Amino acid sequence: MSTSRVAILMGSKSDLELMKPASELLETLGIPHEVRVLSAHRTPERTAEFARNARARGIQVIICAAGGAAHLAGAVAGQTTLPVVGVPLARTPLAGQDALLATVQMPRGMPVATVAVDGAHNGALLAAQIIAVSDPEVGARVEAERKRMTDQVIADDESLQDGV
């Protein structure tokens, strides 16, 4: 069994830089995860096998990032009942709108929770919140991260007010 609780899948290694915020947030929250390059189109069998075996390996949430046709999240959702979070990426002249629609417009019975275009941070936060439903320690870390973000906004506002 893997120690990872979240899998971050990307259709291409070139997506790694855009998905780095997801990995960084999961690290901050102390959630073990793995990062893989699996393609709905170029490695369909390997992708399906990964999705089918993820639960048995201890994975609780799968984050899928892809641009263009963005079939990765849907292809994974079709192979598992684990929660799948889609992160559409702005990799085409359509600025991610094609990926957004491909990710969010799933057929009945194949849900993919979809975050904003290039929304890796929110994809990881959503994965953490899903895990937190049954893990109070992760829940406490998510709460602390939310408080940190709130405190940062307040500090930013106060520094602006002091400078005005």
Layout of secondary structure:
Elements: E1 6-10, H1 16-28, E2 33-37, H2 44-53, E3 61-67, H3 72-77, E4 84-89, H4 97-104, E5 113-114, H5 120-132, H6 136-163
Parallel strand pairs: 1-2, 1-3, 3-4, 4-5
Series of H and E elements = EHEHEHEHEHH
- Which range best describes the helical content: under 10%, 10-25%, 25-40%, 40-55%, 55-70% or over 70%? 40-55%
How many discrete structural domains?
1
CATH class: Alpha Beta
Strand order of the largest sheet: 2-1-3-4-5
Instruction: Outline the biggest β-sheet.
Output: 5 strands, parallel
* Strand portion: 15-25%
Uncertain residue ranges: none
> Quick check: average pLDDT?
96
Q: Could you describe the 3D structure shown?
A:
It is a single chain. With 164 residues, the chain is of the alpha/beta class. It has one domain: Rossmann fold (3-Layer(aba) Sandwich). Helices cover 48% and strands 15% of the residues. It contains 6 helices and 5 strands, in the order βαβαβαβαβαα. The protein has helices at 16-28, 44-53, 72-77, 97-104, 120-132, 136-163, and strands at 6-10, 33-37, 61-67, 84-89, 113-114. The chain has a 5-stranded parallel β-sheet with strand order 2-1-3-4-5, with helices on both faces. Helix 1 (16-28) packs parallel to helix 5 (120-132) and helix 5 (120-132) crosses helix 6 (136-163). The longest helix has 28 residues, at 136-163. It is globular, with a radius of gyration of 17 Å. It starts with 5 loop residues before the first strand and ends with a helix.
